[in-house]
Design goal:
Rossmann fold, seven-stranded mixed sheet, globular
Length: 285
Amino acid sequence: MNPEDRRLAHNVAAYNAVARTYDQQHPEIFNPVEQSRLGAAVRRVLAAVTPGVAPAGRAATAYVPHVIDIGTGSGNLTAHFLDAGARVTAADVSAECLRLVSEKFGASGRLDTRLLDGRGLGTFADASVDVAACYSVLHHVSDYLALVREMARVVRPGGVVYIDHERHDDSWDSAEREQFVAEAVVWPPKRWTRFVKPQNYWRRIRPLLQWQRWRNPRWMPEGDLHIWPDDHIEYRRVRATLAEAGVTDIELDDYLLYEARYQRDVWERWRHRVTDYRMLMGRKA
């Protein structure tokens, strides 16, 4: 098995395993502040879509935009698009994730699912959807620019490419962000009882038992690849790739991600001074 096939197999196995516990393991995503920001972004995405042609026999005012949620996971983005009235194809490499999403949202009548092969969006035709969206996905993909090109390919003229929840370039060497984190995260006072709690020892021991890290110190349980200062998502390359495919920026929103570990009042003070994540929205000509 070549390295790319191994990475893909690892991702599939990882997300099959964590599908039903993913939300609890990611409080930086599943908290009211981030969910509110995401819901507002989704509504702006749908508002930016140039209306398409309604199917035969249906009034144009009844046209329902079709969205691909690429790397749907537990259905975070899918939930917001469904709430906003769209029709969603939830796509993922994990069959267990798709099973979970079907259980959660199948009754909406506006959901279908598609199992991806991890190598592209080949099962989707050119210019076949109104929105191609991904949230917290690109950093899991080896050739993330190839996926960006695929997203542009499957979006119809007037449709939107939407990419969200990736660290932006300037955040990787930001003394201000480091200062914010140091102020926002307050660790509980250390007490002697910490020595008698087995879970405290398990947190330290568990990484040592993950043999994959013996060979690759950057191995991550959920297949995160581009999350390092010297290997991260480069938005300038993402934007250039979209421009080559005829997709023009219509919104770039840099924001300070709220995490459950942050003191809310500190985050409120800093969120207009420093940012670390970006939302990109572009329309295809």
